[in-house]
Amino acid sequence: MLTTTFFPTSVPPRPMGHYAHIVLLRETDSYSLFQTDGELNTARVHAGITHDELITRITMFKRKQTTPERLIGRELLRHYGLVSGDSAAEGKDRKTDDRGVAIDPAGRPICDYNVDFCKQCPDCVSYGFAIGDAGSEKSKVYSDTAYSLSAFDSSHESFTLNAPYEGGTMSRKGEVTSRINEQDHVRPQTLFPAVITVRDLTAPLFLYVLGNVLRARRYGAQTTRTGTMTNHLLGIVLADGEIFSNLHFTQHLYDHVAGTPDFDPNQPISVDMALSAARSLLPTLLGADRVAVQQLLVGADLSHFLDDLGARTRAESGMGELLHAAVRDSTAYHAAYIQKKGRGK
């Protein structure tokens, strides 16, 4: 089971060195889009550590990873009535409680994403916020660019997209529409090794972040039509510092799979082979890091933990209990540090 005594009993105002790492292998389950300015994001890097040839890899920027996970958590908070579903009001329509937090008629805090954060819910305290002159809070969830395990050439596919009229054709009244576009997509079963680092959060807030990762299913653009993804949890690492980077993890894993007899750089990498290699690689990579590991939760112990967590959160009472505990810790942090900073201005 997870060593919950490792986590601080309350969120501290300064870094205290409680690092909980979530080690993942993200797998695309459909054609996905991770793009900027209409093109897939890519990077030219070394394939591995020993395989040092340069290859182009698809990249998944930080916000492409954290935003869907944040939105899943915020949806849950609204579903269980812990934050309001209302948008932020202005002027005379804006009502606040005795702490200055905007509230709806039912007294629930209004947290309008990227518009007017409430500064006190688990999302605000865990992932941070910035509201111009109204204040900011640094994220306690660290994430970095993830790199595809396979090369760009074998990980993407180009599609011609069209937008037909209601009759199902591309012409209307003798005129042919120009709504035709070509777009590169990430292929299904493309793998992105990733590490999410959670620093100095309480156990309930860590479980809130972990639950968001496990529940998130759609990433990238056009998430209502495509972009489904499975996050394979490889391990949870409790340590006194940060561990290896995403790129370092990806390159070492590439060396592992490239050394197998069935490896073909022009074909998708076997998911089972990559998962097995990543699990065996994890202790070695941690051994090379200069951190004191308090717990490495992998294998059967990790499966038992996930089974227990799943049994708890599949029931509304269990999920509600977990979310209420996270809200308790986030509002305590707000009262102790964020609210005081606001009053001191």
Order of helices and strands: EEEEEHHEEEEHEEEEEHEHHEHH
What is the overall pLDDT average? Answer: 88
How many domains? The number is 1
Distance between the termini: 44 Å
Count of helices?
8
Query: What's the number of extended β-strand segments?
Result: 16
Question: Judging from the principal axes of the Cα atoms, what is the shape?
Answer: globular
Helix/strand/pairing category: alpha+beta
Estimated radius of gyration: 22 Å
**Beta-strand percentage?**
15-25%
Low-confidence stretches: none
Description:
By secondary structure, this protein is an alpha+beta fold. It has one domain. 34% of the residues lie in helices and 22% in strands. It has eight helices and 16 strands. The protein has helices at residues 62-79, 122-127, 152-155, 203-215, 246-258, 271-288, 299-313, 316-344; strands spanning 19-28, 35-36, 39-40, 42-46, 54-60, 129-130, 136-137, 141-142, 146-147, 156-162, 171-172, 175-176, 180-186, 191-199, 229-239, 293-297. The protein has a five-stranded antiparallel sheet, with helices on both faces. Strands 4-5-9 form a three-stranded antiparallel sheet. A hairpin with a 2-residue loop joins strand 2 and strand 3. Helix 4 (203-215) crosses helix 8 and helix 5 packs across helix 6 (271-288). The longest helix has 29 residues, at 316-344. It is globular, with a radius of gyration of 22 Å. The model has no long low-confidence stretch (mean pLDDT 88).
